[in-house]
Each structure stands twice: as C-alpha cells, then as structure tokens.
Design a protein that fits this description.
With 275 residues, the chain is α/β, with parallel strands linked by helices. The protein has 2 domains: 127 residues, Elongation Factor Tu (Ef-tu), domain 3, CATH 2.40.30.10; 119 residues, 3-Layer(aba) Sandwich (Rossmann fold). The protein is 16% helix and 35% strand. The protein contains 5 helices and 16 strands. The chain has a 7-stranded antiparallel beta sheet. Strands 14-13-12-15-16 form a 5-stranded parallel beta sheet, with helices on both faces. Strands 1-11 form a two-stranded antiparallel ribbon. The longest helix has 14 residues. The structure holds flavin-adenine dinucleotide. The site of flavin-adenine dinucleotide has 27 residues, from strand 7, strand 9, helix 1 and strand 16.
Length: 275
C-alpha cells in the first residue's frame, strides 16, 4: 500500500493576540501562550502546520502586520513587517477563552524572533496568520520516523500526539545538550522509541544513527526537519541510497545556518534534481 497525505485548506486569517503565559521548557525552548478573542475559530489539523508570526520592530516596539479585507491581504503603507514561521503546538478553547501555545528556540539576539521570545512577558502583543492549510497524517504508514532538531520538536510533539497507537514511532533528535530530551512529557517518551544526540558531543551524529536503523520498508514515512544543511545527507541517503519513494520522505529546512529568515520553500539542496 502506498503512502498518501491529504491536504486541507483553511481561510487565511490574521489575528492579533496577547501573551498570557511564558514557561521555560528546556534550556533553550520557551513556551509562549497566546490568548485573545481573535483566536476564535482557529484550526490546525496537521502535525506539520505552520503560522506566520509577526513581531514588533525591535527599534520602535511597533507591531506591523497585514490585515485581511474582502479583496485579500493588505500590507500597511508604513511600519516594518518582521515575520517568521512557527508551529502551532497546542490550541485550547473553553468558555469563550482561547489559548495557543508556540514553543520558541531561543538562540540569542541575532534574530528578532529569538530576541523577542527571550524577553516575552504577559501582555506583549503579536500577530499571527495561518495556518493556510494542513497536510494531514499519512494514510498507509505503519511506522513513522521523526528526525528533528529543537525547531521541529513542536512538530514532533504533534506527530506523537496525533498518530494512532497502531503506528510505530521512532525518533532521532539533535538537541544542544543533555536535558533537551525533557521537552517531551513522560507519556510522549513512552509512546516513541527515541535516541537523543547532543551537539556538545559533536555535530553529524544523526547520519550514522539513521543508517543504523537498517532497511526501511515501504509502509514507513520519514519526517525530517531542522537546520537545512543537516538534512541534505539524510534525505540523500533515504531517497538515493535506500530508494525510498518521494511520498515516504518529507524534508523541510526549518532554518539555515548563517541565513536570516531562511525561506523553507527554497531547495534544501540546490544540487539535487528533486529540489
Ligand atoms: C514550517 C516551520 C515551522 C517552524 N516551527 C518552529 C517552532 O515551532 N519553533 C522554533 O523555534 N522554530 C521554528 N521554525 C524555525 C524558525 O522559523 C527559524 O529558526 C527562524 O529563522 C527564527 O527566526 P529568528 O528571528 O530567531 O532568526 P533569523 O533572523 O531568521 O536568523 C538570524 C540568525 O539566527 C540563525 N538561526 C535561526 N534559527 C536558529 C536556531 N533555531 N538555532 C540557531 N540559530 C538560528 C540564522 O541562521 C541566522 O544566522 C520553523 C520553521 C518552519 C519553516
């Protein structure tokens, strides 16, 4: 049986939201909870969904974001638009009160999103747009392998929570240091057979770990996400050496070392004809 993933579209909505809670989950991941009436009707139905998050201009503190009108999206004439992509981790709605969690990797002040997240406090304002669409869980997969760095731990968390227990889950995760594995809850740890690799022990540990999984059957789906350069040899191995079909492998460069606001629609490997 071949693996298929259906997609659904959602109406594009731009929402103004307020920080209602901040929690440090691991040394470099902060959970920011956003609230507000404009979250009414928020829908995210796929594990790899993403939002455009709009941040205040660090120079002025002013938040500039597009607005939706009947004729489409309108960008304001003034102000600086600063946006980055983030995973909607969890959404809750009770008695007309709505909350959305986003987990931010804090990697210093070299990026506006990271700098904002490291200082975020209750009452701060953001805008979010999306998700515009959702890719749903793959049909026909009996085994899912997740390969991720910290930026894709939120998506991995969603995979773990959304997949039925009949699907076997394997994870290879690269994090900064010991303690990064505390990102998952005990229930999530119990659900997935995971290996954790610490950058303090050196880079490039995922490649041999992926190879050591051995042959990968046609009912296995592999999700690869994180730093784009890290993914290049992994996807090449899966597609070229093991010969996995395109539908079995989803590789998404969530960021690229040295590039500001890297576009994840760009090829992760321009020399690869698949890109
Ligand atoms: C579909 C999708 C979902 C994503 N979900 C999440 C999520 O849930 N949580 C999350 O934290 N990120 C997520 N990301 C990644 C996030 O969008 C990028 O890391 C983004 O570049 C961060 O913006 P910034 O303003 O901090 O840094 P930028 O201004 O974009 O970059 C400034 C510098 O920081 C470097 N940099 C960027 N990200 C990192 C990092 N993680 N570690 C070290 N250096 C970095 C860049 O290479 C550059 O040199 C997602 C990306 C995509 C495409």
């Amino acid at each position: 049986m071949s693996i298929e993933r259906d997609s659904v579209k959602h109406p594009l909505v731009v929402r103004r939201v307020t920080v209602s809670a901040v929690a440090q989950i691991t040394a470099n991941l902060r959970r920011i909870t956003l609230s507000g009436d404009e979250l009414a009707g928020f829908v995210s139905s796929g594990p790899t969904d993403h939002l455009k998050v709009f941040f205040p201009d660090p120079a002025t503190g002013e938040l500039t974001a597009p607005t939706m009108t009947e004729t489409g999206i309108v960008r304001p004439d003034t102000g600086v638009i600063i946006s980055r992509d983030y995973t909607p981790l969890g959404f809750r709605s009770h008695d007309g009160h709505h909350e959305l969690d986003i987990d931010f990797v804090v990697h210093g002040d070299d990026g506006p999103a990271s700098a904002w997240a490291s200082r975020a406090k209750r009452g701060d304002l953001l805008a979010i747009a999306g998700p515009r669409g959702s890719k749903l869980l793959p049909h026909g997969a009996t085994h899912v392998i997740l390969v991720a760095d910290e930026t894709a731990l939120p998506a991995s968390s969603r995979w773990i929570d959304m997949l039925p227990t009949s699907v076997t889950l394997t994870g290879l995760f690269e994090v900064a240091e010991v303690g990064g594995e505390d990102y998952f809850t005990p229930e999530q740890h119990a659900r997935i057979s995971a290996e954790w690799f610490y950058r303090t022990d050196g880079l490039g540990q995922i490649d041999p770990a992926l190879r050591s999984l051995g042959s990968i059957g046609e009912s296995t789906f592999v999700f690869l996400a994180g730093e784009a350069g890290m993914l290049v040899p992994l996807r090449r191995y899966l597609r070229r050496e093991l010969g996995l079909s395109k539908k079995q492998v989803a590789a998404d460069g969530y960021w690229r070392r040295g590039i500001i606001n890297a576009d994840h629609h760009e090829p992760i490997d321009p020399s690869d004809p698949e890109d």
